[in-house]
C-alpha cells in the first residue's frame, strides 16, 4: 500500500513533497534531489458570519456560520442530506460566493477558485479522452507549470498507488481507481487544502475504507488542511480530528467536537473507535431528530 | 499436438473468416450494382428509341474511364472541384464551429438564433444561386459560397449539440483546478466535442459533394459538374457516365476517410 511505503525513505514522494511535520522523515533522510521548496503548509480557514440563499426570496440555506480551521487540521462537516454541506464546501473552494459574510483563507477573502484549495467531488469526472497521467497533470497544465509534469506526475501516481496505470485510458479503470486518479489530480498542483464532497460514497465498503485511510495519511504527511463533507458518522470518525455537525433548515453549526483517537484506533473495530462512533452518533441523532421535530411543527402550520 | 496449442489457431481462423465475410459481402454488393447497370445498358441498347444512349453501359464507360485515368483527365477535372469543396468546408467550419460553441454554451444565444438558423437551414442551398451570382465577382466565389451555405448547418448544429452534451462536472473540475477561458476551450470543450465537429463535417461533406455538381453548372469551365454538362452538350455519353463514376468514387473515399478519423478520435469506450 502506497501510504505505508511512503512514510520512511528518502526517495519516496511524501518526503519529496512534504518535509518537516512527518515524524518518520528526519532531515537526514531527505533527498538532496527533492524539489527545493518550503514544506507544504496547510491553509488556515476562517468562515465569518456566512449566510446564503440561492435566490433572493428563498429561505436561507446557510445561516450565520462561524468557525475556524487551523493549518493542517482534518475536519469533517457532518449533516443530513440537504443541510447545505455541499453549498458550504463550494464556498470554501471559491466556486460559489456567499450572499452574506465571507470565507477567509490565509488572511485573504476567497473570491474565486484556486489550485491552492481543490475540491474533490463524489464522481471522479476524469476526462475520458486523456490517459491517467494526463488527467493527473491537468492542474499543473492549467497553472502554467507544465515543466513540472515529468517530475511530479510519476511521483504523485505512485503516491496514490497507480504508478503502473499512468498510460492507461482513464475509462479503463475501476471506480475506486478513478477516484484515486482524481485524488492525484487534486494533489499534483500542491494545494494547501483539499475539500472532499462525499468522494467515496459510490465505492464499496472495502475500497472506501482504504481510501479513507490513505487520504488521511496523505493529508497528514503533506500537512494539508482537509475538509470532508459526509453524512456517514463512521467516515467522520475514521478520518477527522474534529467534526462540525450541521443542522438543517437553515444550516447552522450545531456541534463542534474533537475526535480524540490514535491512528491505530481509527483503523476501526477497537474500543476507542466504538466509543467515539456511538458518542458522535448520539450527537448526530439528537440534532437530526430536533430537525425532524421542527419539520413536523412546520408541517402542522402549513396544514392548518 | 496439445489442445492448448489448437485453441488459438481455431480462434485465428474464426477471426480471419469474420474479416473476410465483410469483404466478400462488399464485393458481392459491387457485383450486384454492376450487374444491374449492365442489365440497364442491355435494355437501352435493344430499344430503338434509346439506342443513342447505349454508351451509358458499363463496358464503354469503364473503358473510357480507364483512358481518362491514363490521360490525367480524371485528376484535372476533379482537382478544381475538390478545391472548391475544401474551401467551402473551411469557410463553413470557420463560421459553424465558433458559432456552434457559442450557441451550445449560451442558452440565450441559442434562443435568439434558433428560429432564424432552422429557417435558413431549410432553404435549399441552390436557391441562393442568383444571389451568389450577383454578390460574387467570380463564378468560383459563387460556387464556394453555395457549398459553404450547404455545409455550414450540419457543422453548426452538430457542434452545438456536442457542447450541450458536455458533462458540466468537467467544466467544474477544470475551473476548480484554475483553468482560464483559453484552457476551458482548448483542454475541455474542443477535445470533448472534436468527434461531434467531425461528424458534422462528415455530414457537411456529403451535402457539399451533392451541391457541387449543380453549382458547377454555373459559368466555370472546370470541375466535375462542368465535365458532366460538357459531356451532355457534346453527346459524349461514355464520358458522362465515367464522370458520374468518378464523382461516386471520390465521394465515397472522402466519406470513408473522415469516418476513419472520427473513429480514431472517438474517446468513448464501450463499458466493460
Ligand atoms: N444550485 C442551487 N440552486 C438552488 N438551490 C440549491 C442549489 N444547490 C443546492 N440547493 C439547495 O440548497 C440546500 C442545500 O443543498 P446542498 O447541496 O448544499 O446540501 P447537502 O448538505 O450537500 O446535501 P447532500 O448530503 O444531499 O449532498 C438544499 O435544500 C438544496 O435544495
Ligand atoms: Mg452534497
UniProtKB/TrEMBL annotation, chain B:
<dbReference type="GO" id="GO:0005886">
    <property type="term" value="C:plasma membrane"/>
</dbReference>
<feature type="transmembrane region" description="Helical">
    <location>
        <begin position="207"/>
        <end position="228"/>
    </location>
</feature>
<keyword id="KW-0813">Transport</keyword>
<feature type="transmembrane region" description="Helical">
    <location>
        <begin position="23"/>
        <end position="45"/>
    </location>
</feature>
<comment type="similarity">
    <text>Belongs to the binding-protein-dependent transport system permease family.</text>
</comment>
<feature type="transmembrane region" description="Helical">
    <location>
        <begin position="182"/>
        <end position="201"/>
    </location>
</feature>
<keyword id="KW-1003">Cell membrane</keyword>
<keyword id="KW-0472">Membrane</keyword>
<keyword id="KW-0812">Transmembrane</keyword>
<feature type="transmembrane region" description="Helical">
    <location>
        <begin position="240"/>
        <end position="262"/>
    </location>
</feature>
<dbReference type="GO" id="GO:0055085">
    <property type="term" value="P:transmembrane transport"/>
</dbReference>
<feature type="transmembrane region" description="Helical">
    <location>
        <begin position="115"/>
        <end position="136"/>
    </location>
</feature>
<dbReference type="InterPro" id="IPR000515">
    <property type="entry name" value="MetI-like"/>
</dbReference>
<feature type="domain" description="ABC transmembrane type-1">
    <location>
        <begin position="78"/>
        <end position="258"/>
    </location>
</feature>
<dbReference type="Pfam" id="PF00528">
    <property type="entry name" value="BPD_transp_1"/>
</dbReference>
<dbReference type="GO" id="GO:0010438">
    <property type="term" value="P:cellular response to sulfur starvation"/>
</dbReference>
<feature type="transmembrane region" description="Helical">
    <location>
        <begin position="85"/>
        <end position="103"/>
    </location>
</feature>
<keyword id="KW-1133">Transmembrane helix</keyword>
<feature type="transmembrane region" description="Helical">
    <location>
        <begin position="142"/>
        <end position="161"/>
    </location>
</feature>
<dbReference type="InterPro" id="IPR035906">
    <property type="entry name" value="MetI-like_sf"/>
</dbReference>
<protein>
    <submittedName>
        <fullName>Nitrate ABC transporter permease</fullName>
    </submittedName>
</protein>
Amino acid at each position: 500500500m502506497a501510504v505505508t511505503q511512503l512514510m520512511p525513505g528518502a526517495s519516496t514522494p511524501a518526503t519529496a513533497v512534504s518535509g518537516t511535520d512527518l515524524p518518520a522523515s528526519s532531515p537526514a533522510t531527505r533527498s538532496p534531489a527533492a524539489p527545493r521548496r518550503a514544506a507544504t503548509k496547510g491553509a488556515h480557514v476562517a468562515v465569518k458570519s456566512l449566510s446564503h440563499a440561492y435566490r433572493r426570496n428563498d429561505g436561507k440555506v446557510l445561516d450565520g456560520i462561524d468557525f475556524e480551521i487551523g493549518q493542517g487540521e482534518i475536519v469533517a462537516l457532518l449533516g443530513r442530506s440537504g443541510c447545505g454541506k455541499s453549498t458550504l464546501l463550494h464556498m470554501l473552494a471559491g466556486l460559489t460566493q456567499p450572499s452574506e459574510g465571507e470565507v477567509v483563507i490565509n488572511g485573504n477573502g476567497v473570491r474565486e477558485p484556486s489550485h491552492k484549495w481543490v475540491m474533490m467531488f463524489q464522481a471522479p469526472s476524469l476526462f475520458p479522452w486523456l490517459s491517467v497521467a494526463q488527467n493527473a497533470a491537468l492542474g499543473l497544465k492549467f497553472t502554467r507549470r507544465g515543466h513540472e509534469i515529468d517530475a511530479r506526475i510519476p511521483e504523485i501516481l505512485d503516491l496514490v498507488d497507480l504508478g503502473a496505470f499512468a498510460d492507461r485510458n482513464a475509462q479503463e479503470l475501476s471506480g475506486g481507481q478513478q477516484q484515486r486518479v482524481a485524488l492525484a489530480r487534486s494533489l499534483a498542483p500542491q494545494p494547501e487544502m483539499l475539500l472532499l464532497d462525499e468522494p467515496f460514497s459510490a465505492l464499496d465498503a472495502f475500497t472506501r475504507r482504504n481510501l479513507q485511510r490513505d487520504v488521511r495519511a496523505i493529508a497528514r504527511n503533506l500537512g494539508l488542511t482537509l475538509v470532508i463533507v459526509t453524512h456517514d458518522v463512521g467516515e467522520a470518525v475514521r478520518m477527522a480530528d474534529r467534526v462540525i455537525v450541521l443542522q438543517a433548515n437553515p444550516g447552522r453549526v450545531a456541534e463542534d467536537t474533537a475526535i480524540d483517537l490514535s491512528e491505530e484506533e481509527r483503523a476501526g473495530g477497537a474500543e476507542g473507535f466504538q466509543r467515539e462512533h456511538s458518542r458522535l452518533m448520539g450527537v448526530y441523532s439528537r440534532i437530526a431528530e430536533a430537525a425532524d421535530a421542527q419539520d413536523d411543527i412546520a408541517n402542522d402550520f402549513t396544514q392548518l | 499436438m496439445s489442445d492448448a496449442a489448437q485453441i488459438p489457431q481455431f480462434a485465428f481462423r474464426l477471426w480471419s473468416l469474420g474479416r473476410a465475410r465483410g469483404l466478400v459481402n462488399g464485393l458481392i454488393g459491387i457485383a450486384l450494382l454492376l450487374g444491374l447497370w449492365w442489365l440497364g445498358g442491355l435494355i437501352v441498347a435493344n430499344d430503338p428509341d434509346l439506342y443513342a444512349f447505349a454508351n451509358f453501359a458499363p463496358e464503354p464507360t469503364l473503358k473510357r474511364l480507364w483512358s481518362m485515368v491514363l490521360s490525367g483527365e480524371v485528376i484535372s477535372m476533379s482537382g478544381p472541384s475538390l478545391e472548391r469543396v475544401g474551401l467551402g468546408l473551411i469557410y463553413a467550419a470557420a463560421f459553424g464551429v465558433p458559432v456552434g460553441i457559442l450557441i451550445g454554451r449560451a442558452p440565450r444565444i441559442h434562443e435568439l438564433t434558433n428560429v432564424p438558423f432552422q429557417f435558413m437551414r431549410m432553404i435549399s442551398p441552390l436557391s441562393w444561386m442568383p444571389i451568389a451570382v450577383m454578390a460574387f465577382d467570380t463564378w468560383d466565389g459563387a460556387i464556394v459560397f453555395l457549398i459553404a451555405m450547404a455545409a455550414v448547418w450540419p457543422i453548426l448544429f452538430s457542434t452545438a449539440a456536442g457542447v450541450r452534451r458536455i458533462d458540466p462536472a468537467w467544466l467544474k473540475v477544470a475551473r476548480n483546478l484554475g483553468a482560464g477561458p483559453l484552457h476551458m476551450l482548448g483542454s475541455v470543450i474542443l477535445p470533448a466535442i472534436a468527434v461531434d465537429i467531425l461528424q458534422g463535417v462528415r455530414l457537411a461533406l456529403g451535402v457539399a459533394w451533392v451541391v457541387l455538381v449543380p453549382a458547377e453548372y454555373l459559368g466555370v469551365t472546370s470541375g466535375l459538374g462542368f465535365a458532366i454538362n460538357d459531356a451532355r452538350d457534346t453527346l459524349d455519353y461514355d464520358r458522362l457516365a465515367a464522370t458520374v463514376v468518378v464523382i461516386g468514387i471520390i465521394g465515397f473515399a472522402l466519406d470513408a476517410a473522415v469516418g476513419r478519423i472520427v473513429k480514431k478520435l472517438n474517446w468513448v469506450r464501450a463499458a466493460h
